[in-house]
Amino acid sequence: MRLGSGTPIPASVQAPAYDRAAQAAGIVHIGIGAFHRAHQAVYTDDAMNAGDRNWGIIGVSLRSGDVAAQLNPQDGLYTVSTRSAAGTDLRLIGAVQRVLVAADEPQAVIAAIAAPTTHVVSFTVTEKGYLRAADGSLDLAAANGPSSLYRFIGAGLAARRAAQLPGLTLLSCDNLANNGAVLKGLMHQYLVAAYPDLNDWFDTECYCPATMIDRIVPATTDADRAAVEAVLGARDEGTVVTEGFSQWVIEDDFAGPRPRWENVGAQLVTDVAPYETAKLRMLNGAHSALAYIGLGHGHEFVHQAIADPAIRPIIETLMRNEAAPTIAAAPGQDLSAYADALLARFGNPALHHRLIQIAMDGSQKIPQRWLETLAWHQARGQRCSSLEAAITAWIAFLRSDHRVDDPLADQLRASAAGTDAMENLFGGRGLLASEWRPEIST
Ligand code: CS2
Questions:
Q1: Where in the chain is the domain with CATH 3.40.50.720?
Q2: CA 256, CA 204: separation in Å to the nearest integer?
Q3: Is the pTM of this model over 0.85?
Q4: Within a 10 A sphere around the Cβ of 332, how many other Cβ atoms?
Q5: Ligand 1 center–CA 280 separation, angstroms
Q6: Mutate to test the pocket of ligand 1, among 214, 216, 348 (most ligand atoms within 8 A of CB)
Q7: Where in the chain is the domain with CATH 1.10.1040.10?
Q8: I want to staple 131 with a disulfide (CB 3.0 to 4.6 A). Which of 15, 142, 152, 357 is the partner?
Q9: Strand 267-269 vs strand 247-251: parallel, antiparallel, or unpaired?
Q10: Which amino acid residue places its CA nearest to atom 5 of ligand 1?
Q11: Which pLDDT belongs to residue 418?
């Protein structure tokens, strides 16, 4: 039996306490992968359980029909397994109403963005989904192409304005530095080219708050689905697995109504930057280092790599001595305690988080995770032994037999091949040119 609205849910599984069928969709979410389902959708489900109304989510996949095939036959329902050494907690989430595949039904996506009930359009499209050229500006050819979020937002906003509806909050939930401002700037560039008349309206009517999003969500496996079926008594093709920890820091700068996410654990703040910088440089920076160094040592999972005595000190140094000093902490933000918590989270043995999943898209991740920290220290005449070890491990990964899953895979492999790898990758005209100048060779 497949999970659906009529499925009897065991008493041990928490289920939505609100009338799902009575909720309007207030949110359109672009890029409905496992992360969104284990993070924002859970906060939104919590908010509706606590009494908020009409924050149903319409999920959008830009290209792939996989998530639509998982969730639509289940009336949008799916379970979240929270796993720790102490056991697993299973919960049913009702916030997602349906999933649209933009490539197949573009008009339905535009209509959802333009609907009067929609107030927030949020995004988890990964770093590469923002379609930035090497200099950070919008790659206009890609933005006019098939997997562009901009086309749908542009058309949806134009329809809202034509209908004299208010603007929207565009909420980037990806691991980019300054994600809100970056999205706003890129959207601007798109509108200048595609809808020049819309720019002033966009500026006054639409807001792009910054966010820091954090929850570790490994890709779901067949074994995970089988384990859920055993408890639920129904087949859930859309199930996701995650850790107990979850954090969401959001700049409180919305265009209109929003769920009261702050009542269910989110932090609404005036400045996200200290949290975002700490997360990118400490958590994600350590993650990427664990991925390349760990794979080089033959490990498969994060919890194995962090337990390796040859690796753990490198990661501790990276977080505590290299990343943390570069961060101007917010009042009450304790970076040493943050590092402790991250080490415990990485060590979670119940979460089988594959290093190869984190190794993906290195070219898109490394600048904000490693290079800003390296440049900060270089400007003070200091070296970073752990980040340099991480860079060396990345180059070894690019030269190895591992499949390189990265939009720049071919150029990366070619750049890493010769003796000039450092210069080709990180030099002034390198693929990942930044303010950091490599002082090491490979
Ligand atoms: C990871 C992140 O895959 C990766 O690159 O570093 O997905 C990480 O698990 C999340 O950002 C945690 O919030």
A1: 20-269
A2: 12
A3: yes
A4: 5
A5: 9
A6: 216
A7: 273-426
A8: 142
A9: parallel
A10: 358
A11: 86
For the domain 20-269, what is the CATH code?
Answer: 3.40.50.720
Q: Report whether residue 175 contacts ligand 1, using a CB cutoff of 6 Å.
A: yes
Strands 25-30 and 247-251: unpaired
Residue nearest to atom 3 of ligand 1 (CA): 358
What b/e sequence results for 46-68 when a residue is b if at least 16 CB atoms lie within 10 Å of its CB, and e otherwise? Answer: bbbbeebeebbbbbbbbeeeebb
Would the CB of 44 count as within 6 Å of ligand 1?
no
Ligand 1 centroid to Cα of residue 49, in Å, is: 28
Residues in the chain: 442
Q: What confidence tens digit (pLDDT) does each residue in 248-271 have?
A: 999 999 999 999 999 999 999 999
> Over the stretch 97-123, which tens digit does the pLDDT of each residue have?
999 999 999 999 999 999 999 999 999
* Closest-lying ligand 1 atom to the alpha carbon of residue 217: 9
Q: In the chain, what are the helix, strand and coil shares in percent, each to the nearest 5?
A: 45, 15, 40
Which listed CATH number (1.10.1040.10, 2.20.25.90, 3.40.50.720, 2.60.120.10) goes with 273-426?
A: 1.10.1040.10
Q: Is the CB of 97 under 6 A from ligand 1?
A: no
Distance 211 CA to ligand 1 centre (A): 15
- Does 287 sit in the ligand 1 pocket, CB within 6 Å? yes
Beta carbons within 8 Å of 281's beta carbon, 6+ residues apart: 323, 326, 327, 368, 369, 370, 372, 373
Nearest to 260 by CA among 44, 92, 56, 93: 44
Calculate how far, in angstroms, residue 215's C-alpha sits from the geometric centre of ligand 1: 8
- What share of the chain has pLDDT > 90, as a percent? 97
Provide the percentage of residues in the chain whose pLDDT is more than 70. 100
Q: Kindly report, residue by residue over 187-246, the tens digit of the pLDDT.
A: 999 999 999 999 999 999 999 999 999 999 999 999 999 999 999 999 999 999 999 999
74-83: per-residue pLDDT in tens?
Answer: 999 999 999 9
Nearest CA to ligand 1 atom 8: 216
38 CB under 6 A from ligand 1? Answer: no
**Which two three-digit tokens encode residue 166?**
């208010």
| 305 has pLDDT over 80 | yes
- pLDDT-derived band at 22, boundaries 50, 70, 90: very high
